[in-house]
Every structure is written in structure tokens, then in C-alpha cells.
Amino acid sequence: MIKGISSPLSLLQESLLGEAAGEVLSLDRLTEELMIACRELAAPLHRLCLGDAPSGDVRARALSASTLAMRMSEPMHALQAWALAETPSGGVTLAPETLGDFWYLVMMARSLTETLETPPPDRLLHLLGLVGLRLRLEKHVGLTPALPIMVGDGEPYGLSVTEIAALCGLKLSTVRNALSRREMHYQRDSGVGLDEALDWMVQRSGFLYPHVNAATRDRRINGRLAAEWLAASDAVVYERSISRLRLSIWRSSTTGRRFALNTEGVRSCVVLLPETRLDELGDIPLDGWEERGRDPSATMHREALGLEEGAALLQCQIPTTGALAAIVDCLGTPRQEGEGGVARQSVGRCQPVG
Questions:
Q1: Is residue 249 part of a domain?
Q2: I need a surface site. Which of 12, 119, 193, 296 has the fewest CB within 10 A?
Q3: Crossing angle, helix 122-140 and helix 194-201, to 10 degrees?
Q4: pLDDT tens for residues 63-98?
Q5: Rounded CA separation 167/207 (Å)
Q6: Does residue 70 lie in a domain region?
Q7: DSSP β-bridge partners for residue 273
Q8: pLDDT digits (tens, 9 = 90+) for 52-61
Q9: Residue 280 belongs to domain spanning
């Protein structure tokens, strides 16, 4: 277990904010920094470990720049893929000692550049900062640690402006503008609370770790996360996608009732419920609802759902996985004889989730 790692905030590089994480952490650029770091460290390590032993000494070969870079390439590749969430639910299958060696090498390289007044390994440091942030967010929602690295609890501290920007590939000014618009509440001594930050970040297309929101029933989700949750559920069956409407069609496994989802939605999760009365949904918390049966696009929606002309269409904005699960349960409950499918012909908002 790697202990005592630096905080993510001290590792993130403000000069790299605003770029997509995939560009910042491209393997070509990381490899270039790794080679430079190994070249700069090789000589000091040789003197510390071997003294005046000649460079041809067999022991010296293990401390050569090329050997160090070769050994550190594997953990760098593994951590880069994990930091970019290329496998959201997977861990890194490397020995703790190997990960630790890479972490310590980057820290030594930073210290050496400070002494020599040379450019630090910015991208390698940024990589470790994102690794630390992902570990902290996953720990917050109770996910099993995927790396043998200990991170500080951090509570009651939230996320800084820099950390939010790094997690979403945004400029600092973009996050600060959001704070000025009261989209999040920022405390000078503790930043933005983790739950509030997660709910805001999941509505950004560049957020690296939306799977963290999906790990709990209480955090905000979007259409993409909802589609993943539905695909893993036995309670519904996927039928098809309609690209021109940006919708996917699903049906209940028990009742066959169909509904549509904004599968590619990032800002929110919206479902279209045909022939559904609002009072059928009971106390399910919704961000908003609206009868869409008279919209210009209603005919296309009815065709996609196999409905008759004039069938009611209730559109609901779903805030969380818990609310989505409740909607699916409701659609899977057989209706009593005589229950109709007419939604209220009005527009309104339900009680928002606290």
C-alpha cells in the first residue's frame, strides 16, 4: 500500500487546465517527460547507490536512464488508462511496489527540477493528481479502492476550483463563472462540497468520472448514465435507438409498457412516458414534468413508440438513479382495469430533490 501521497491539488498543473484530459495525458507527451526525468535522475541515483562504480558495472545498468524508463513505462501506461477512465470499473493489475516506484520517481524528478531550476514533469504530476482525485471521489461514494494507494479522508473538505476544472477539462474562468452564478456553493476554507460538485460536474461533457454518480442512488445522473443503468437492469428490455430524435426506446419486462430516454443527454436525464398519468408516479421525486402531446414533434414520438394519434405523452426530468428505478417499477406494475392513459394537460414542476 502506497502511503503518504501528496494531495491532488498540489500535483495538478494550472497551465494544463482547459485542455481535454486525453490531450494533456497523451502517451507521447507522457513518454517524453518520463524519458527526460529518467535521464536527469540516472546520474544522481548512480552516485547515491553505487558511488564511483564505473558505468559499465553490471549494477549500473539497472540504474541507467533507458532501464529506468523501460521499467516505469508499464505503470505509466496503466495509470494513464485508469486516470482517463478507459475502463471505468476496472483496477490496475500491478504490484503495489511497481506503482510506488513510479510515484516516487515522479516526486524525485520534481524535487530535482526545483533544485536544478529546470522545467518540472508537469504532465506526469497532473496524471498523479487525477489519479488521486478519482480515488477520493470513489472512496466518497463507497466504491472499492481499485489501486493500492491510500488517500486522505479529506472530509469535510470539498473540491477546489482547480480540481473541478481538471476533472471536467475546463478553464478556471469557466468554473469561477459558475460559482458567481451560484450554480455551486463555494466555501473559502473547504471549497465545494463533494456531493454538490458531483451533481454539477456530471452535467459537463468532459467530466472524467460520471460512473461515480451512478454508484449511488442519490447523486444526479444524465441520459448517458441512465442508459447504462437500464442496459444492466432485468426490469426493462432495450428495443431500438432513433438517431434523428436522439432517443432510445425501452419497454417493461413485465407489462410491456414502452418509454423513451434521451440516451445521449449530458445536462439531464429525460424520459417520455406514453399514456401515463402524473398521479401514477406517486411521490417519485422529479425535477420537472410536462405534457408534450401537443408539441410539433409529438407525431414523430408517437410513431417511434407505436402509439395511436392523440395518445398523451408525459415528459419527466429524472434527477437520480433512485428516481429512475422508481419510474421503472411504476411502469412494471400492472394497471388496474379501467385505468386510462391520459396525462394532465398542463405544464408544471414537481418537488425538486433536496
A1: yes
A2: 296
A3: 110
A4: 788 899 999 999 999 999 999 998 766 667 888 889
A5: 6
A6: yes
A7: 314
A8: 666 666 666 6
A9: 223-348
